Amino acid sequence: MKRSPLRPVSPKRRAVNTEYSAFRDSILERDDYRCRFWQFTKPEDEMDVSLPIACTPFLEVHHLASRKAFPAGLMEPTNVVTLCSRHHQHVTEHPAWAEARGLYIRAGVALADGEETL
Question: The whole model's pTM is what?
Fold first, then answer.
């Protein structure tokens, strides 16, 4: 099987990656390096045995509105929240559940700051 060489990262993409890395670090610090999943749950969620309870030590920055839905939201602090990898996966796999709790914003839904997604 013939493989093509990896394409080099463009200077523009390298700058964005560096800027995003600093943004990610600031969000983790803002959220005190803790998963914020349980702040978005409802009382009835406590009885749901399908919810992953324990957090993992691996933290990720979750975008409430995707880049496709809200391109300007990549580095918008109001569009992100810190989640552990287990809860991030749960939110990604259950968009209707996440939307009902404010962890997912569909395209076309108004954001908190008054902007509307695509």
Answer: 0.78
C-beta of residue 33 within 8 angstroms of C-beta of residue 59: yes
Question: What are the structural domain ranges in the chain?
Answer: 59-118
Q: What backbone torsions phi and psi does residue 5 show, to the nearest 5 degrees?
A: -70, 155
User: If you write DSSP's letter for every residue of 24-64 in order, what string do you get?
Assistant: HHHHHHHTTT---GGGG--GGGGG-TTS--SPPS-EEEEES
Look up residue 85 and give its two tokens. Answer: 């990898």
- Which DSSP state fits 77? G
User: pLDDT digits over 48-107, tens only?
Assistant: 888 888 999 999 999 999 888 888 888 999 999 999 999 999 999 999 999 999 999 987
End-to-end distance of the chain based on CA atoms, in angstroms? 41
